[in-house]
Amino acid sequence: MMKQGVIIAGFATCGKSVLGRKYKNVIDLESSNYKHINDLENVPVEMRKGTKREINQEWPENYYRAINDAINKYDVVLVQLKPEHLDYFDKKDIRYSIAYPDINDWETVEMKCIDRGNNPNFIKRLKEVFIPYYEDVMRRNYETLYIIGKNETLESVLIKNNFNLKGSDINE
Q: CATH number for the domain including 67?
């Protein structure tokens, strides 16, 4: 049987995009590329978040297909953390782990959003779900919970947990 990659559902600002760009055995499946009709392709993805856009009629099945394809090609598949995606994983008996910021440190999450250019609507919605999503996660059947501390990134936490990340100058 072919080895499958690990799915990590990460809350916003954990460092999924940075990790996906840096390592060739890691992919960040940015959900908005699947959820919306990409009519704002000249606008950076972080600035598109929180804007009104047309929903792709194939959503969320197109996202789940991409996740299922990616776990056969990559060692680490990073996905959006949303209860409906976790419901899908649970229903299909798909193993996954969780990456979440320190629940006592909303301020760092907010600063990361501002620094990367997220609009106020996106930040407001994120704050509204910050604790409810965490409470939902704690009831889930995940494999591992990675808490991202104030001065940590998903990358540093995965390295600390002995993940073999391939493709950066440091780990080649």
A: 3.40.50.300
Residues in CB range of 61: below 8 A, 6 or more apart: none
CA distance 63 to 46: 18
**Cβ pair 34, 121 in contact under 8 A:** no
Pair 168, 22: CB distance under 8 Å: yes
**Residue written as token pair 């919970």:** 145
Strand 76-80 relative to strand 97-101, pairing:
unpaired
What are 155-166's pLDDT values in tens digits?
999 999 998 898
> Half-sphere exposure (CA, 13 Å, Cβ side) for 69?
9
Cα gap 127→168, rounded to integer Å = 32
This prediction's pTM:
0.87
Q: In this predicted model, what pLDDT tens digit does every residue of 142-156 receive, in sequence order?
A: 999 999 999 999 999
pLDDT digit string, tens, across residues 27-44: 999 888 888 776 556 655
Number of domains in the chain: 1
Q: What are phi and psi of 72, to 5 degrees?
A: -90, -5
Q: What CA–CA distance (Å, rounded) separates 98 from 50?
A: 23
Instruction: Answer yes or no: is 105 within a domain.
Output: yes
- Which of 94-109 are b and which e, b meaning 16 or more Cβ less than 10 Å from the residue's Cβ? bebbbbbbebeeeebb
